[in-house]
Structures are given as structure tokens and as C-alpha cells.
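call fold(seq) -> C-alpha cells
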Amino acid sequence: MEKRKLAEVTEQQQYFEAVPTSSPERDEGTRNMGLLYPFIISGGSNTEHYYFKHISNVTNHKFNIKPEYFGNEASYPEEFPKRINSILKNNADAKIFCVFDFDTIYNNKANQENHKRFVTSIKKEIAKGSVVLCPSMPSIEYWFLLHFINYTDLIKSCGTKLQSLLSPFMLPFFQNSKKKLLNLLKSEKCINNSEWVLKLCEGGKLDDAIQRAESNIALSEAKGELGEHSYSFVYKVFKD
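ret:
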């Protein structure tokens, strides 16, 4: 029982930035809480969870990650509101980034309607800035691609085309693996080590991806052509 209590306290403390030990003069009845780290919620398999976990460990960008997976990527419109409400119930000032793939929406009219209802259900939180939507079209692997090249042609699904573009850059990160890259990035065994994220970010590649994603979206939106290109709003988690 004591171990369980300790684990719960430790998890709660990780939500906040560490702060210096209180001075002797400070009232012992007060607790100096640090900055509340932003929350990342995502669906899918292991990719997003381990990516942001490693980012938080090896860079200056710190997050609270909610890795409660659900089987079908397209079911996020039902799952995300539950997580958002749970976080805001206990952390009223939290900033929440919703990271999800958009190819399941782009190619399915029923999922498009579910997405619209989801956005409507959290419109107050979006307006307040508590919740920021960070879709990638087609998927987070496109966000990874922007670390290497500035590719904006529309890729409608996370499949052969995206894998062919990304594999030459990222497969060397995983030596002695015979898996295809997109399967490899979903394998907990293959990505639980932070080395692949270190290599992904080294040499200023993370900054390159942020700049490319932001400028490409701004240009596409100015022309009213966002739906005609691939894009990733994941850059927002590093800007706010």
C-alpha cells in the first residue's frame, strides 16, 4: 500500500517543473509548485508515446504524456474528450495538446462527421487556449519526414509513399532490424530506447522541422490550399 501511495505522489509531482528547496524563512505550510508542464494526449500505438517521452527526457521540451491507448486510431473523437475532462478536472490551468493522425479522417466521411462533433464538444477549451489540436496529414511520420526534407505534396495515407520517403533517413537509426520502418516505429521493443529520437533531433533537425511545418501551413492557409498538401501541426507543441 505504501508503495502505491508513493507512486501516486511521484506521478503527480512529475506534472510540475522542479523548484528549489524552500528557504528556512518560507512558511512550512506552503508548497512552492513549479510550472505545470503541458499535457500530450494521443492515440494509435506506441509511436507518439515513446517519441514525446524521449523528447521530454533528452531535450529542454518537457511534457506530461498520457499513454492510454485505444485500438482504433479513428476513435479519438470519443476518447480524447474523456482525457481532456480528466486532466482539466485536476489541473484547471493545464495546457493540452491533442496529437492525432488525420488520414483516418481525410479518407472517411463518417470519421469526418465524428471529428466535427469532437471539435464542437471542446470548442470552449479551444477558445480558451486550454486545448490545442495538432493533427498530422497523413500521420506523425510525416512530422518526422520534415526533420530531413521539406516535402509538401499531398500524401493521403500512411503507407508506401511515406515509407519510401522516410525510410532512407530513419532506417539507419535502427541497425540490424528487418522490419519495415512504419512497423518498426510501432514496436515498443524497437523504440523504447531514446537513441532514435536523439538522432532524429541532432544537428538542429528538430528546429528545421518546426520551421518547415509552421511556414508551410501558413503559406497553404493563406492560399486556402491546406487540404491540398501534407502538413503537421505537431510543431505547435514546441512553440507554445
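Residues 34-238 form one domain.
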